[in-house]
Amino acid sequence: MKKTWWLVPCLIVVLALGTVGCAQGGGQEVVYAAHQQQTGIWVTGQGEAMAVPDIAMLSLGIEARGNTVAEAQSQASEAMDKVMEALKNSGIAERDIQTQRFSIYPITKWLRDEEEEKIVGYRVTNVVSAKIREVDKTGDIIDAAAEAGGDYTRIQGINFTVDDPAPYYEEARSKAMDDAKKKAEQLADLANVKAGRPTYISEGAVYWPPPIKGVYEGGGAPIPAPETPISPGELKITANVQVAYAIV
Fold first, then answer.
1. pTM for the full model?
2. Secondary structure of residue 149 in the 3-state scheme
C-alpha cells in the first residue's frame, strides 16, 4: 500500500510537468507566429479602372390585380406576353431573358365593424431580367416594353456592366499593387529602413457601382414618356490589396 501511494504523487507530478511544458511550447509557437505576422511594413493599396458599359441589365415585369386568382393571373399573363414580344422584337434574344420572380399574394382589408381581416382581391407579379447588348437602344426598349404592358408595367431598375470585365480587373489590381509599393517605400524612407520583397498579399472585394433604381415603379403611375433618356456613363472598378513588405 505504501508503494502504491508513493507512485501516485510521482505520476501526478510528471503529468503536471508535461502539461506545463506543452503549454509553454505551444505559447512560444503562438508568440512566434504572431511575431512573424507583425514583422515588416503593412500597407493597403487601391487601384481604379474606368470601363465603358457594353451591357445593360434591365429588370422589368408585370403586376395585375383581380377579384380572384384566375382573373389576376389572366391579366398578368396577357400583359407579360405582350412585354416579352416587345423585348424580342427589339432584338433581345430569348436566352437573354430570364424570370426573376413570380408571386401571387392576397390583397386584404381590415373590416372595423367585423373586427377581422378579409381578402378583397389578389395580386400577381411577374418580373424578368433582360440583357440588352446594344446599350444605345436601352431607352427605346424601355419605351416599347412600357407601351406593350400598359398600366401593368413595372420596371424595377437598370444595371450597367461590361461583357468581359477581366481586363479591367487586371488594370485595377496592377494599380493597387503600385499604390501599395509606393506607400511601403515612403514609410520605409520615413523609418530610415529599406522595403524588401512582399511576404503577404491579400486582395479585397472588387467594387462595382450599384444598379440604377426607380425608372418606373408602383401602380397607378403614368407610363413613361416616349424616348426615355438613358445614359450609361462609365463604370469605376476598384480593387484593394493588403501587402506586407519585408524590412531589409
1. 0.67
2. helix
